[in-house]
Specification:
By secondary structure, the chain is of the alpha/beta class. The chain is 16% helix and 39% strand. The protein contains eleven helices and 58 strands. Strands 3, 7, 10, 11, 12, 15, 17, 18 and 21 form a nine-stranded mixed beta sheet that branches. Strands 22-23-28-30-33-36-38 form a seven-stranded mixed beta sheet, with no helix packed on it.
Length: 654
């Protein structure tokens, strides 16, 4: 308590006993006001008035009944004044219950704020940390410095900062008050803050905020500050990344929201983070937009993931790599934008401000293209290949699901077979379609077994792995089917027409021709897999696969002079493969009933030999016989006798 002389000398205080008012126009403390009021009450001219201010402990002060107080200067104290004064003309009042001041005709209320920011790791002080305080719902700044100007707080070398946190501006209160604390090399801390006027911390016991290290930044603070082109436009909610990598853009934005500078005109970086949230967040290689409505320009995704936001495109071209997650793509220039080699998660919404925008995406991408300015081409080129197929093979690539031939060609180049198909909704191949690859091979009298594989189509393509193996039975014939002139394919009726002027034909040549025919464009299309072998002497038509028949275009009967068996399997039965009737009317005499067994009886017993060799020997003998005997029908007798002899020998060896 001041002595009487000192208290009486205080200026800036006016007491009116008759009006029961106290006016503070200077800068005074509550204690000084109390001392002055005691001096005033002791004056002889004021003896008739009550002491206007009282205290029992020097901490709590109260106005006498009926008295009021106004402040146009500054009145402060560490205690409390029970009835708060009115403030006017820039007046300021602060006690332990909070601060009140007038500005622009409004009365504002705030709590004193004393902060210290330290590292989580070792509790050491963090210099240069920024602190922002505001209301998210209304984007109102609520942090004030000691001069009562709206501001952010920056920690000093001791990690300390102080000021005021407002909760009532001109009678308006705020429901979503939040405090953010951040520093470039440390994570942002956001705290919902309830303020009622009581101080947050004190000059001796500060409110502590602990920040962990930000493992997401990749550049030093100085290097991040030097990155150019990253610009935030708050009024339009647009962030231009300037073509920088996402890692550099993140570092630049992290620097901007932690620097003691405006991120946009009139808005400090930390207040942007406080009121709007971080402009870009990061977790590993995944970057997330501030909000679904924030516009991002100049995005270079690389191999990273970009989630959310509106991504603006103004340059048609190919944008490969990376992954987009739940974005809106907005196109401002006409042309084709190719994203088929990019990854997508969720649904991408496609919009445009101009017509003539074509967006290419992979078939698996989920998209919303209700904007009439946008046309979507949801297709992608996929490779369907088998590197093991040998040159000279005739191949057919077929979409079984769509019942469509994709390609019919001959393998060449020494690298196997390969085809690039267009995969997508409504395209030649759709995801999940069953794709079949078949191949037939002949070179001279050398044949490979028919090859066939199927697989399901996907954006990854199809890599067939099967190989072609020697066809021993066909190779045993010793016949080059391309040289056979008595046979012609009837693709329409799936028949092999036989024109034999001398009334007999070599069944081995017929088989060779059928196998050769598979290596032609129409042959593989219509006859592939029609003929199968038990061995070189026994051949059959698999009727369930291809219902191929033999046809005689002449009016006279013709004979197979080879001795082989040629039959058809149909519905589990063995039947003749001959058309009935034939085109020319003449019959075809072939062995279709009896299986051909071959063995040779020697002095040492029965010896089983290669069937093809025996059949070939018999056929050659018949073909070299006198033509008149063939015409008179003895060919058939000779074949039957040869067949019976072979069967008898087989029986003897059993």
């Amino acid at each position: 308590m001041a002595n009487e002389a000192t208290a009486g000398a205080y200026t800036g205080i006016t007491i009116n006993g008759a009006a029961k008012t106290i006016a503070v126009s200077g800068a005074r403390t509550l204690q000084e006001l109390y001392d002055y009021s005691q001096w005033w009450a002791a004056q002889s001219g004021n003896i008739q008035y009550d002491a206007p201010l009282s205290t029992a402990d020097g901490v709590g002060f109260a106005l006498a009944s009926g008295w009021s107080m106004s402040v146009t200067g500054a009145l402060t104290g560490t205690g409390t004044l029970a009835t708060k004064p009115t403030v006017a003309s820039g007046g300021f009042f602060e006690d332990a219950d909070g601060a009140i001041w007038e500005a622009g005709g409004d009365t504002n209320k705030a709590a004193a704020f004393f902060a210290q920011v330290v590292k989580t790791s070792d509790s050491s002080d963090i210099e240069g940390a920024v602190i922002g305080f505001g209301d998210k719902a209304t984007q109102t700044r609520l942090g004030y410095n000691a001069s009562l100007a709206v501001d952010t707080f920056v920690t000093d070398a001791d990690g300390e900062a102080e000021g005021y946190l407002a909760y009532d501006l001109g009678g308006t209160t705020y429901a979503e008050k939040a405090l953010v604390v951040g520093e470039y090399n440390h994570n942002f801390l956001e705290i919902p803050q309830s303020i009622d006027g009581a101080p947050v911390g004190s000059s001796t016991t500060r409110q502590e905020y602990r920040l962990g290290t930000d493992a997401q930044v990749t550049k030093t603070k100085a290097a991040a500050a030097a990155i150019t082109g990253v610009v935030v436009d708050v009024p339009t909610d647009t962030i231009d990344l300037g073509g920088n990598t996402l890692a550099d853009a993140y570092d630049s934005l992290k620097y901007q929201v932690t620097a003691d500078a405006d991120i946009d005109t009139g808005l400090p970086g930390c207040m942007y983070a406080c009121l709007y949230g971080l402009p870009l967040t990061k977790s590993g290689t995944t970057y997330t937009a501030r909000s679904a409505t924030t516009i991002y320009q100049g995005v270079t995704i690389g191999t990273d993931t970009f989630a959310g936001g509106i991504v603006e495109w103004d340059t048609p071209g190919t944008y490969a790599g990376g992954t987009w997650n739940g974005n809106t793509f907005h196109f401002t220039a006409a042309g084709t934008y190719d994203f088929r080699a990019a990854g997508f998660i969720g649904t991408v919404v496609l919009t445009a401000t101009v017509p003539g925008v074509i967006v290419q995406v992979a078939p698996s991408v989920s998209f919303d293209d209700t904007d009439p300015n946008v046309t979507v081409d949801a297709s992608v080129g996929i490779t369907i290949a088998n590197a093991n197929l040998i040159d000279g093979s005739r191949v057919q690539l077929y979409n079984v699901t769509q019942d469509t031939e994709l390609e019919n060609t001959t393998v060449s180049g020494g690298a196997g077979y390969s085809y690039v198909a267009t995969l997508g909704p409504g395209q030649e191949v759709e995801s999940g379609d069953t794709i079949r690859l078949i191949a037939a091979y002949r070179s001279g009298a050398t044949y490979k077994e028919n090859y066939q594989e199927t697989n399901a189509a996907s954006v990854s393509g199809i890599n067939f792995l099967g190989t072609q193996t020697d066809w021993e039975a066909a190779n045993g014939l010793g016949k080059d089917g391309s040289l056979e002139t008595e046979y012609m394919p009837d693709d329409l009726n799936i028949q092999i027409d036989i024109d034999s002027p001398d009334q007999n034909f070599d069944g081995r040549g017929l088989v060779a021709f059928i196998l050769h025919n598979q290596t032609t464009e129409d042959g593989i299309r219509n006859f592939f897999g029609a003929l199968k072998s038990e061995d070189a002497a026994n051949w059959y038509v698999e009727g369930a696969l291809v219902d191929m028949k033999l046809d005689n275009i002449n009016s006279y009967k013709i004979y197979d002079s080879s001795g082989i068996r040629f039959y058809k399997k149909s519905a589990g039965s063995v039947v003749t493969p001959v058309a009935d009737p034939t085109f020319g009317g003449g019959d075809i005499d072939i062995n279709w009933r009896e299986k051909v067994y071959v063995s040779v009886v020697t002095t040492s017993g029965a010896e089983v030999v290669d069937a093809a060799e025996v059949v070939a020997d018999v056929a050659d003998a018949v073909l070299n016989a006198d033509p008149s005997s063939r015409a008179s029908g003895t060919v058939g007798d000779t074949l039957v006798k040869g067949k019976v002899a072979a069967q008898t020998a087989a029986a003897l060896s059993a």
